[in-house]
Design a protein that fits this description.
Elements lengths: L13 H11 L6 H16 L3 E6 L9 E6 L2 E7 L7 E5 L4 H8 L25 E3 L2 E9 L21 E5 L2 E4 L2 H12 L3 H14 L3 E5 L4 E5 L1 H6 L3 H23 L17 H6 L4 E2 L6 E2 L16
Parallel strand pairs: 7-12
Antiparallel strand pairs: 1-2, 2-3, 3-4, 4-10, 5-6, 6-8, 6-9, 7-8, 9-10, 11-12
Length: 308
């Protein structure tokens, strides 16, 4: 008999099977019943951490919230909206010094929308950007519908898509040119192994957004569709937390000039960030018009066309 597995070929645990069935069957349930199931799911996540507690208070974000310590870093998970299992996952980290180091490499553009709100007064201003009321220095998005289709170059009304740079298939950073440049400096200052793990985790689990916030928090948004369709919801949550913890750990190490990333790989320190930014070249796919970094790959991440 063939064992149940996900697309990665790994066997699905009994706990994942149970939670896939519970979460996928939310339609038709009362709101109170949904909250009970979500509380049970949060408790199942918390059992893998330390000092976990469930909070239910109208003054908190969401109707129910899990707080715990995962590998010594504070974690907060809450349901974003009524009647939906849209989850925000936050890790509180100590990466402000790293953000300051990278921010100092940039000349301030007074006309830019970029600015820093929650860092100390000596932090360079005009570096963070606002997206839906959230102030971040890096936002990575997953949305396969945003993959551009080949435009008709003979049509003067066909101007192509908004300014997006794709990091992998359907995974991108978007914004004004300077905003993208600054985001890329932070992302590419991470070790190659960590960047690969981030893109694999975001893509495999269909994470809508991954954000590094001005104050040092790192968060992801897991949509209801992603959660209820996942055949391994508990494993997915563990993978997401591992990714966030590794991001926080590596950036903290870089700030203290420790030149090793996960598994001992050498990483770039603040002194190299400006030089690295100067070498960043964005290519445009001749076939589908996707913008991407040719130094990261030999072909377009969306259509697979060779880098010209």
């Amino acid at each position: 008999m063939m064992k149940d597995s996900d697309t990665s070929g790994k066997r699905t645990s009994d706990a994942d099977k149970v939670w896939h069935k519970k979460l996928a069957g939310k339609d038709g349930r009362s709101f109170d019943t949904q909250l009970i199931i979500l509380e049970e799911f949060f408790n199942a996540i918390g059992e893998k951490a330390r000092n976990h507690k469930i909070l239910k208070n109208e003054h908190l974000e969401g109707d129910i919230q899990l707080r715990c310590a995962y590998k010594n870093l504070p974690v907060k998970i809450y349901c974003l909206t009524h009647y939906k299992y849209d989850l925000e996952v936050y890790v509180k980290s100590n990466i402000v010094q790293r953000l300051q180091q990278i921010g100092r490499q940039w000349e301030i553009d007074p006309s830019s929308r970029w600015f820093m709100l929650s860092l100390p007064n000596d932090t360079p201003q005009n570096w963070a950007t606002e997206s839906s009321g959230v102030f971040t220095v890096l936002t990575i998005l997953w949305d396969p519908d945003k993959i551009p289709r080949k435009t008709d170059r003979s049509d003067p009304w066909s101007t192509g898509d908004e300014n997006r740079v794709f990091l992998a298939n359907g995974i991108f950073i978007e914004g004004k040119e300077k905003e993208i440049e600054k985001s890329m400096v932070l992302f590419q200052s991470m070790s190659e192994k960590l960047r690969k793990e981030i893109l694999e985790t975001v893509g495999m689990n269909k994470i809508e957004s991954l954000r590094v916030h001005c104050g040092g928090n790192i968060s992801v948004l897991i949509s209801q569709k992603c959660l209820v369709e996942s055949r391994k919801p508990l494993t997915m949550m563990a993978d997401v937390l591992e990714m966030l913890i590794k991001m926080a750990g590596e950036m903290e190490s870089a700030a203290s000039q420790v030149k090793t990333g996960i598994d001992g790989e050498e990483i770039k320190t603040a002194e190299n960030d400006a030089d690295f930014a100067a070498k960043t070249i964005i290519a445009t796919c001749a076939y589908c018009t996707s913008k991407y970094l040719p130094g990261e790959r030999l072909s377009c991440p969306n259509c697979g066309a060779s880098c010209s």
